UniProtKB/TrEMBL annotation:
Residues 135-252 form the GFO/IDH/MocA-like oxidoreductase domain. InterPro entries: Gfo/Idh/MocA-like_OxRdtase_N, Gfo/Idh/MocA_domain, GFO_IDH_MocA-like_dom, NAD(P)-bd_dom_sf. Pfam families: GFO_IDH_MocA, GFO_IDH_MocA_C3. Residues 5-123 form the Gfo/Idh/MocA-like oxidoreductase N-terminal domain. One of its GO terms (molecular function) is oxidoreductase activity. Keywords: Oxidoreductase. SUPFAM superfamilies: Glyceraldehyde-3-phosphate dehydrogenase-like, C-terminal domain, NAD(P)-binding Rossmann-fold domains. It comes from Paenibacillus donghaensis. It comes from the Bacteria. The keyword Cell membrane does not apply. This is Oxidoreductase.
Length: 331
């Protein structure tokens, strides 16, 4: 019988009820043991809908449950630090929504706290767990598109009319860089297998939306002259794309950050023409749950916890560049 990781869900946000909880239920390695909300009626209703044994009216009760081995945290960004630290103190493994922190200092605190407690910590970039990403990395490594020259990443949507949205609260970690810019930024680091040297970002900071960055565009410089050109936004037409350019060809990924079973293809262009790759389809949230459990049970994690600090360093530097309106060299 497959070993099962017993999960506690800390909050009833839509990402939890719509994506992560169904994925854990579908996984081969996990079972949802409990769910907590600050509103017991709400958590009880979600528990009933998912057939979860235990509902709590506080996060403290969830962390005190000895049956819960790991927690998933989908809370607003500004609450991540407190509850990651408290979960680590309670001896729980932690999967926390992205962006896991508001800055690299918070990320470092989390990584160190979880290391001291002997618990696994992961940031919920589900797209990394989709098998398509591994296939794309294999094409790059094969030399089919030659030497890597540039990456172009886009992720935009328009939800600007909903001014009450928590993504538009500056003190809560709102803004497009935190919400969607983090995807092409993390993908470029993954595909380049290197850390950036400098960033230059321009952003639209909206007074109507608590002065968060509603749109940002930037250049991220990697070693060897490789660059990421990206844009992200919450006040622009819906679109996603990731293009990887080499000396002999390019790879194009439509829907790079939300692909599942039926839309996992990608395209390789070279002098010999276009090649469509029907990549392995999967629910990335389910793969994320299984990969997380595998790390808890002793396997090498797909992404080391230290990556959390490096990724937050890049995001905070991009935000600083946009606010200062200047190029920032990274140490």
């Amino acid at each position: 019988m497959t070993q099962k990781l017993r999960w506690g869900i800390m909050g009833s946000a839509q990402i939890a009820t719509g994506s992560v909880m169904p994925a854990i239920a579908e996984s081969t390695s996990g079972i949802i043991q409990a769910i907590a909300s600050r509103d017991l009626d709400k958590s009880a209703a979600v528990a009933a809908a998912f057939g979860v044994q235990q509902a709590y009216g506080s996060y403290e009760e969830l962390l005190a449950d000895p049956q819960v081995e790991a927690v998933y945290i989908p809370l607003p960004n500004h609450l991540h630090l407190e509850w990651v630290l408290r979960a680590a103190e309670a001896g729980k493994h932690v999967l926390c929504e992205k962006p896991i922190a508001l800055n690299s200092r918070e990320a470092l605190q989390m990584v160190e706290a979880c290391s001291r407690a002997g618990v696994h910590l992961a940031e919920a970039y589900m797209y990394r767990h989709h098998p398509r990403m591994g296939q794309v990395q294999a094409v790059i490594a094969s030399g089919e598109i030659g030497e890597l020259r540039s990456i172009r990443g886009t992720f935009t949507y328009n939800d600007a009319e909903d001014t009450s949205n928590i993504r538009f609260k500056s003190a809560w970690g709102g803004g497009s860089l935190y919400d969607v810019g983090c995807y092409p930024l993390s993908a470029a680091r993954l595909l380049c297998a290197a850390e950036p040297e400098a960033v230059t970002v321009q952003a639209l900071f909206s007074p109507e939306h608590d002065h968060v960055d509603m749109m940002a565009s930037g250049l991220v410089e990697f070693p060897g002259g490789v660059s990421l050109i990206f844009d992200c936004g919450m006040w622009a037409f819906n679109r996603q794309l990731l293009e990887i350019l080499g000396t002999q060809g390019r790879i194009e990924l439509p829907m790079p950050f939300n692909a599942r079973e039926e839309d996992a293809e990608f395209f390789v262009y070279s002098d010999s023409g276009m090649r469509r790759v029907d990549a392995i389809g999967a629910n990335p949230y389910t793969r994320q749950a299984d990969d997380f459990a595998a790390a808890v049970f002793g396997q090498k994690p797909l992404v080391e916890p230290s990556d959390i600090i490096r990724n937050m360093t890049l995001i905070e530097t991009c935000l600083a560049s946009a606010k200062q309106r200047q190029r920032i060299v990274m140490g």
